[in-house]
Each structure stands twice: as C-alpha cells, then as structure tokens.
Amino acid sequence: MFKEFLDKLLAPAPAILPDEEARLALTALLVRLARSDNVYSDVERDRIDRILRTRFALDTGATQILREQGEGLEAAAPDTVRFTRAIKEAVPYEDRTGVVEALWQVALADGKRDDGEDALIRLAANLLGVNDVDSAMARKRAEARA
Questions:
Q1: 64, 49 in Cβ contact below 8 A?
Q2: What pTM value is reported for the model?
Q3: What are the residue boundaries of the Co-chaperone DjlA N-terminal domain, all occurrences included (predicted)?
C-alpha cells in the first residue's frame, strides 16, 4: 500500500506532494516522534488524533484511518528525512512552525520530556527549515497547552 508513496519520498528530486499525501507524511512524522522513546501510549495516540482532527477538520473515523495509515507508513519508512522533506516542499513556512508545535504537543502528551524526542524535534525543525527562534516559540505554545 505504501510502496508508491515511499517511492515518491525516496526519489532524488521528489515532486510536491498533494495535500492528502502531505497529511500522511505529517501523520507518519507525529507517529515516529511518539514511538521514538519506545513507548507509544494511548495518551500519545489521543494527542495525535486531536491534532489531526483539528488541523484537517476530520471526523473521528477519518482521523483514526489517517493515524493508522500514518502508523503503517512510519513503520515502513527508512528515515525521518523523507517525511520532513515532503512536508517542507508541500507546506508554507508559517504552517511548518505549526508542525513543530504539533510535534511538541505529542512529545509533551505523556507529561515527560525525553532526550530522544527532544533530539528528533530539533532534527525535524532543522530539516523543515524552521529557525531556532520560531521552534522555541512553538515549544512554548505547546507547553502552554499541555
């Protein structure tokens, strides 16, 4: 199911992804972050669902389907660079800061800061082209919501 999409992500010069595929790449990135500490908890799944529902105006069923597809893609994809590159090409800068904020929301969902999650967010923010100041502001907004 994900082979064609992964082929697009792995292409040397990928085309800009359609909205639906950009959503899937974002979802896979959120799942990758949630799984990065080897504990993918219900609270993290719930936070991902809430982010997807709000960001994309989805109903509960569509949200669950998108998250499950993101989980499958994340498990099949070789690295984080592919997701971030796809998102960077498809999403304007202002919305990419929102992606960093969403990553922080997932990282903070379980009430614990994890060094691995922090490192993955720093990497993702850098690969998304989000500067340090905007990334720090995104973290502060996520902390205020937690």
A1: yes
A2: 0.84
A3: 23-139
